[in-house]
Write a structure and sequence with these properties.
2 domains; five-stranded mixed sheet; 5 helices; 36% strand; Tumour Suppressor Smad4; Jelly Rolls
Length: 259
């Protein structure tokens, strides 16, 4: 049902587009999660001891959405699809973790539809009234790389209403879905940014960053968010927070400061 295997740094465990026929459990070391876009290979984040890789593809029977490569000496369990499903059935705690993760992603999709696909002026007015009634802290948003400053300017942006959506500017020829981000950033091909990429939002008394199911994910204070990772949102800390849109090494890096 499972096989112990060791990998050396640089070894590929599986590639984007491969069939999802097994799950990887990291026992020691760490691995890199990569997205191949055209001829580029973009680092989305890392997985460490105790984390699963490839489980979502096994559960929904879809090809691998990313490539995984050993970043150090690595020991893993390779668990067959049948073995993983049997383990989930027998381990209530593991099943609960997976259900929570999938439920969070479903809730993210529902929230994104509600936020970005408002059907009428009346619904928009209700959302604006709710936002106005909500106490929003002083939020400063600014570029921290030269490339990002070229597109959004070097002056900090003061955010006064939530949710605040950041994403890529629509290119000529792309369909207009009506989901215009609050901050539209020009992004030449191959795109690092998705049309809606991430948003700042208030929920449960906290200000959070949520990845909006973007292609390459969002990194907040070194923690990767998105559909290839364990979580899609994270609370911001008081003071300055580092936010990178589009995977590690992306030029779209920002500081979000709660004053």
């Amino acid at each position: 049902m499972y096989l112990l295997k060791r990998f050396q740094p640089g070894d590929v465990l599986f590639r984007q587009g491969d069939p999802s026929d097994h799950v990887v459990l990291v026992r020691s070391g760490h691995a890199e999660v990569l997205r191949e876009v055209g001829g580029d290979c973009i680092l989305l984040g890392t997985a460490k001891e105790g984390e699963f890789l490839g489980e979502m593809g096994v559960l929904n029977e879809r090809p691998r959405s990313a490539t995984v490569r050993a970043a150090s000496e690595l020991e893993v369990e390779l668990i067959s699809r049948r073995g993983f499903l049997e383990r989930v059935s027998a381990d209530a705690q593991l099943a609960h973790r997976l259900l929570v993760r999938m439920s969070a992603r479903l809730r993210d999709v529902e929230d994104m539809v509600a936020t970005l696909h408002t059907a009428s002026a009346e619904a928009q007015a209700r959302a604006q009234a709710a936002t106005a009634a909500q106490a929003v802290p002083t939020i400063r948003f600014e570029a921290t790389t030269y490339a990002a400053a070229l597109y959004v300017g070097s002056e900090p942006i003061r955010i006064t209403g939530l949710p605040y959506v950041v994403g890529r500017q629509r290119d000529a020829g792309e369909p207009d879905t009506g989901n215009k981000p609050d901050l539209e950033i020009p992004d030449p091909k191959p795109y690092r940014l998705s049309r809606p990429h991430f948003c700042l939002m208030a929920e449960d008394g906290n200000l959070q960053v949520r990845d909006l199911n973007s292609e390459l994910g969002t990194i907040v204070n070194e923690i990767p968010l998105g559909h290839d990772f364990a979580q899609d949102r994270i609370p911001l800390l008081q003071g300055e927070n580092a936010v990178i849109a589009g995977g590690r090494g992306s030029p779209y890096a920002f500081a979000v400061t709660l004053l």
